[in-house]
Amino acid sequence: MNELERELKQLIIDTLELEDISVADIDSHEALFVEGLGLDSIDALELGLALQKRYGTKGDAESEKIKEHFACVHNLALFVSSHQNGDR
Amino acid sequence: MTKNVIPIEKLLSDQREKHSPVALRSDFHDQHSGYHEKCSGPHDNAVLDWHDWLNNVARWRQVLEQHDAQRWALYHEDASVFSAILFALWSLGKTACLPGNCQPALIASLKTEVDAFVGDFDGLVDTLPPPSTQTVDAEQLAALAHAPLDSNKILLQIYTSGSSGKPQLIPKSIGQLSAEVGHLQQLWGEQLASTLVVATVSHQHIYGLLFRILWPLSAGVCFDTHTCKYLEDIKLRADKGWALALISSPTHLSRIPTAMDETALKQLRCIFSSGAPLKRDDSLLANERLGTAVIEVYGSTETGGIAWRQQSPQMAALWQAMPGVQVRIDTPSECLELRSEHLADSVTWQLTPDRVRFDAQGQFALLGRADRIVKAEGKRTSLDEMEATLLQHPAVDAVRLLMLEGKRTEIAAVVVLSSDGASTLASQGKRHLNEALRKHCLQRFERPVLPRRWRYVAQLPVNSQGKFERQALLKLFQNPPTSQPRLPTVLGQESTASGDIHLQLHIPEDLLFFDGHFDKVPILPGVVQIHWVDHYARQSFSLTEGFLRLESIKFKQIINPGQEITLALSYDPAKGKISFVYSSATGEHASGRIVLDSTQ
Predict the structure, then answer these.
(1) Can you give the pLDDT at residue B375?
(2) B551: which strand partners?
(3) Do the Cβ atoms of A20 and B452 come within 8 Å?
(4) Would strands B546-555 and B116-119 be described as parallel, antiparallel, or unpaired?
(5) Which of A8, B150, B237, B447 could form a disulfide with A40 if both were Cys (CB 3.0 to 4.6 A apart)?
(6) ipTM over 0.95
(7) What is the pLDDT of residue B1?
């Protein structure tokens, strides 16, 4: 498992205080919102905030892009690492 | 048999036949309850009579008189002692403040509310020492008889959970209580006459206080001193030859044991239920099983009794107002409004949070509490409505929703599964079931208000009044169980000829203890290895001794996620030591001994 993806899955579980689910249960390509993991609009706000705190991502991109970045853990990892690379 | 009825406010001053039974002692092991043994009840020698009871009131009055404290928290599980203290306080114009239970947090919060404590608080606070059991002289009894009970002063305060979920104190005057007792007598006095009043509900709540103590005292009817934990317990009382009146709640009446004693059932004269509506099916079943129809009383700590109903197989009963109570619907809230002699102000209409529907005859159905409208993340949601929705799902037998205020304001669900649900849980896991139920709710509710935390339980936690206790429900959501394992997977276990145990363990990749130990290179912490030794040794050797110290502990190789390891345990009872070795194909990982504390 990609280390960043693993880390993000743990972050999702911890930030959103999800129950009855472990890192191993989350597929990197599974949808995070509505379908799949079934996260909601409030989770999206919480998660955005946590990513900002931990990785310094910026939440001000256009909404369609955000939707794409937040679609699954795989996309989220690409989004976060592009930020990390950009910062270096 | 109503000639012996005395209103509450005249109870200490009016004359009653001195051998008239007041209380039946049902705690036969308690040697300190101040009863003397004599034959004053049917085939019974543990009855407290009117003379005894007045003496007890006078004794308590004597000790309470010596204190300036005005507001007294009162808790006592023995109804006869409780009642003696209550009337002693009232005879001195002091206020009794009743907590509904004796939980440490509630009692601690009372310290700032009251001046002193009297009764038995389980050692949580200092209480007034009980009076000596010496005979009270005639002068003191006369003083008691001449101490008028003030009908209008607030002499009782009852703790109840407010609509905010936080406890609040509800004030009552003796006049209010007396009016209500009078109405109970008017409605059901004949049924209660000459019975022994037994109960499954506490007298620390308004319902129990009125039905178990105040009404029997006023009607000259004997009450049982202790609460029946189980319905079977009424057999003990029935064996003494008494006709029985049962003061109960849906908690017990919806869970009637299969084998009820025939004698007890024959002696049952009337059954009351309050605290929550008893489902029609449960009521009819109770009637069938207990041989007596259940009289349900609807009311609240704030309002006192409001209405009553009795189900019959022919038709679903509606609620009808008690004497002294007028009811109507408030528009547009569709909630019940009432005017009642059980309230301090019997003139002004008071709005309740209970939604109702009236029929042409002025009887009504209860539709649920309006104040279970909650705001989950700002979205108005009716918990009643969501519960009704969940109940439609085949996996759900019973459900109670509650609000949790954590990182977000969210709804949590406590669910009793049907056999369908239980088999889904077993075969497909908790997360699958959670999601199925959430999906079902999505039909009516927006995603952000869906329950996010689920607890599947064998029974919904209710107190003896049949109320869902928020504290008990909340407890289910404290320290949320992590889904990450804390123990290895046991692949195999064998005992050797010498009695040693060999466990074949797989170390889960997502073991809780790998979190932060360490981020880049997860290794199994040594302390966890020791804990597992202790855990499996206790299981395998049935140990009861405590942990004393460690000996010769060596960590030779690290243990990684996903590894398969053998744990060898041996127990030397003579030395009180457990030896252990963790090993794998690559050799020994750790070894050592735990020394047990044989003094425990």
Answers:
(1) 64
(2) B593
(3) no
(4) unpaired
(5) B447
(6) no
(7) 41
Per-residue pLDDT for B5 more than 70? yes
Question: If we measure between CA atoms, which residue out of B208, B182, B137 comes closest to residue B6?
Answer: B182
Give B468: exposed, middle or buried? Use CB within 10 Å, 0-12, 13-18, 19+. Answer: middle
The Cβ of residue B14 has, within 10 Å, a number of other Cβ atoms equal to 12
What the block records as the tokens of B577 is 């030591």
CA B342 to chain centre: 26
Domain that holds residue A78: 3-87
B231: pLDDT strictly greater than 90: no
**How far away is chain B from the Cα of A63, in angstroms, using its nearest Cα?**
20
For the segment B20-79, what is each residue's pLDDT rounded down to a tens digit? 999 998 765 433 444 433 333 343 458 999 999 999 999 999 999 999 999 999 999 999
Please choose, from the candidates A6, A17, A73, A4, the residue with its C-alpha nearest in 3D space to the C-alpha of residue B453. A17
> Where is average pLDDT lowest: B171-180, B206-215, B471-480?
B471-480
Q: Which pLDDT belongs to residue B52?
A: 93
Give how far A62 is from chain B: nearest CA, Å.
23
- The answer to whether the Cβ–Cβ distance between A41 and B510 falls below 8 Å is no
Given an 8 Å threshold on Cβ–Cβ distance, is A24 in contact with B509? yes
- Residue B362 tokens read as 């002025």
Residue B301 in contact with partner chain A when CB distance is under 8 A: no
Structurally, chain A folds into a number of domains equal to: 1
- Which residues contact residue B391 at a Cβ distance below 8 angstroms, ignoring those fewer than 6 apart? B398, B399
SS3 B491: strand
Nearest to B516 by CA among A10, A55, A47: A10
- Range among B138-142, B239-243, B325-329 with highest mean pLDDT value: B325-329
Whole-angstrom distance, CA of residue B199 vs CA of residue B178: 21
Partner B contacted by A40 (CB < 8 A): yes
Q: Angle CA(B195)–CA(B270)–CA(B160) in degrees, nearest 5?
A: 95
Substitution target from A16, A40, A45, A54 for chain B, most B beta carbons within 10 A: A40
Nearest-by-CA chain B residue for A34: B447
3-state secondary structure of B384: helix
CATH code, domain carrying A81: 1.10.1200.10
Q: Which residues contact B107 (CB under 8 A, 6 or more apart)?
A: B73, B75, B99, B121, B124, B125
- Total residues belonging to chain A: 88
Q: Which domains does chain B have, with CATH numbers?
A: 2-317 (3.40.50.12780), 322-373 (no CATH), 377-475 (3.30.300.30), 489-597 (3.10.129.10)
Q: Which residues of chain A have pLDDT under 70?
A: 1, 59-64, 85-88
pLDDT of the residue at B2: 40
Looking at beta carbons, which residues of chain A come within 8 Å of B513?
none
- Contact list in A for residue B431 (CB cut-off 8 A) is 20-21, 25
Distance from CA of A76 to the nearest CA of B (A): 20
Task: Kindly provide the b/e burial profile for residues B117-148, where b requires at least 16 CB atoms within 10 angstroms of the residue's own CB.
Answer: bbbbbeebbebbebbeeeebeeebbebbeebe
Contact A38 B438 (CB under 8 A): yes
Mean per-residue pLDDT of chain A = 83
CB contact burial B576-589 (16+ within 10 A = b; e otherwise): eebbbbbbeeeeeb
pTM above 0.95? no
DSSP B434-450: HHHHHHHHTTTS-GGGS
Q: With bands split at pLDDT 50, 70 and 90, how would you rate the model's confidence at B420?
A: very high
- Using the Cβ of A17 and the Cβ atoms of chain B, whether some distance falls under 8 Å is answered with yes
The reply to whether residue B510 touches residue A38, judged by beta carbons under 8 angstroms, is no
Calpha distance B22→B486 (Å, rounded): 57
